[in-house]
Automatic annotation (TrEMBL):
It catalyses: ATP + protein L-histidine = ADP + protein N-phospho-L-histidine. This is histidine kinase. GO terms for cellular component: plasma membrane. InterPro entries: HAMP_dom, HATPase_C_sf, HATPase_dom, His_kinase_dom, HisK_dim/P_dom, HisK_dim/P_sf, HssS/ArlS-like, Sig_transdc_His_kin-like_C. PANTHER family: SENSOR HISTIDINE KINASE CPXA (PTHR45528:SF1).
Length: 480
């Protein structure tokens, strides 16, 4: 029976939560009651100890001036109602005054306590002590205290002793513990009912989501969850719904990816096949014509090679199969070399290219995979050149920002609207709807840039306005 119950609890989330919460509540309630027992006992006892010490000091000071019957009666009146026993003895240990109804056995015990602590009383003037009370009601121990009574010459003339009972405070403490126990029981009952209600509200939507996720696993991406609310369960339902949309988009993008690859490979293959067929079927060898045909075949083969290389690189980056090889590099020298390598492309379109490296970075070295970062920056620079008109300008800047080094590439080109900005990091996305073979590239460059920067634990950002130009930001942490 116990094993069967345990098995049911393990399989049911609601029962598992209920069991753990109830066990936690019981442990917490026991801890609170035990803590209250310990704290109240120590607090009350410490409080009484200080009070007894104060009363002893006051009584001893009063008896040092005079020990007449009036003074003794006055001290006895002060102790009345305090649930205490008062004893005054002379230097020889003989009782001078005792409270009413005290047995001789108790008096002997009190005098023995004084005798045993004479030397300590001589040093500290008074002594307090908590005795042990054997009771089944967790009685707080009594507080015993004694103080020396000195004469006018400073010699000990006797002792005043108080035995303070703690019964009244103990009753209050026991009542407090009973109240805590009652509140704990009510808390358990309310907690059980609330947890049962709460777990049902959680488990029912979870069961529905479990069924819907099984439908998703079977390929049904058109499901709709009837989970409402802004709590964690509602958020989970929304996330599952969003995941479903993303899976559907992934399926569609995969189909689109295959379509793009087929299109981009089919075009150069068609050119290669067509021109090679012309050469194969030609009856006469026309060197100039063949040279032109071979030039087209070569260009299309390079285009295919570029596409395949970019696809291979992007796939490896996304799968984390390319290791980033860090090396220390002088930022200024490295960027100058990279920028000069594209000087001819700037000249061809009469574009003004400028490089600005912050002065604080002129002699600064940072850790980068220079080969991959060159790839990323060149992709963006060539993109900027492609979409910037003649006599436009492109600026590459490098500076520090917080814990990052920032590469900023700004151009005065066509710019993009907000819809294009949301998609530029996607594979094969091209802002040019006509997909011009001369201008649009493979559509993988910016996707590769993003993967390279993120492989450096960095991030990318882009700002653009239509017909106003575009600015790319690459953030690379100093410490990788």
């Amino acid at each position: 029976m116990f094993r069967q119950l345990t098995s049911q609890i393990k399989k049911s989330l609601a029962k598992k939560i209920t069991t753990w919460v109830m066990v936690s509540l019981i442990v917490l309630i026991v801890f609170i009651i035990s803590g209250a027992h310990w704290i109240t006992a120590n607090f009350y006892q410490e409080h009484l100890t200080h009070e007894v010490e104060g009363r002893l000091a006051a009584h001893a000071a009063l008896l040092e001036t005079e020990q007449s019957s009036e003074i003794l009666d006055y001290i006895n009146v002060l102790e009345t109602g305090k649930h205490s026993v008062l004893l005054i003895v002379n230097e020889e240990g003989e009782p001078v005054f005792t409270s009413d109804n005290i047995s001789s056995e108790k008096i002997s015990g009190y005098i023995q306590f004084i005798e045993e602590n004479r030397s300590e009383i001589m040093t500290h003037h008074q002594v307090t002590y908590t005795d042990e009370v054997d009771t089944m009601t967790f009685h707080i121990p009594h507080v015993w205290g004694t103080a020396a009574i000195n004469n006018q010459d400073g010699e000990t003339a006797g002792y005043v002793f108080i035995d303070q009972d703690t019964g009244e405070l103990n009753v209050a403490r026991v009542n407090l513990l009973k109240l805590l126990a009652l509140m704990g029981t009510l808390t358990l009952l309310v907690g059980y009912l609330f947890i049962r209600y709460l777990t049902r509200r959680i488990s029912n939507p979870l069961n529905e989501m479990s069924q819907r996720t099984q439908d998703i696993a079977d390929g049904d991406f058109d499901i709709k969850l009837n989970v409402k609310g802004e709590d964690e369960v509602g958020t989970l339902g929304k996330n599952i719904q969003q995941m479903t949309r993303q899976l559907k988009e992934y399926r569609d993008s995969r189909r689109e990816f295959i379509s793009h690859v087929s299109h981009d490979l089919r075009t150069p293959i068609t050119y290669i096949k067509g021109y090679s067929a012309l050469m194969k079927d030609a009856e006469n060898v026309d060197k100039e014509g063949w040279k032109r045909h071979l030039g087209v075949i070569y260009d299309e083969a390079k285009r295919m090679e570029s596409l395949v290389s970019d696809l291979f690189l992007l796939t490896k980056l996304q799968e984390g199969k390319i290791q980033i090889h860090y090396e220390e590099v002088n930022v200024s020298e490295w960027l100058n070399s990279l920028f000069k390598s594209r000087a001819i492309m700037f000249d061809q379109k009469q574009i003004e290219g400028t490089l600005n490296v912050d002065r604080s970075l002129e002699n600064q070295t940072i850790s980068l995979d220079t080969f991959r970062m060159e790839q990323a920056l060149i992709n963006i620079l060539e993109n900027a050149i492609r979409f910037t008109d003649v006599n436009g300008s492109i600026r590459l800047s490098c500076y520090k920002e917080d814990e990052n080094i920032v590469f900023e590439i700004a151009d005065t080109g066509e710019g993009m609207d907000s819809q294009e900005l949301d998609r530029i990091w996607e594979r094969f996305y091209k802002a040019d709807p006509a997909r011009s073979r001369d201008d649009s590239g493979t559509g993988l460059g910016l996707a590769i840039v993003k993967e390279i920067v993120e492989a450096h634990s960095g991030s990318v950002k882009v700002e653009s306005k239509k017909d106003r130009g575009t600015t790319f930001y690459l953030y690379i942490p100093f410490a990788n």
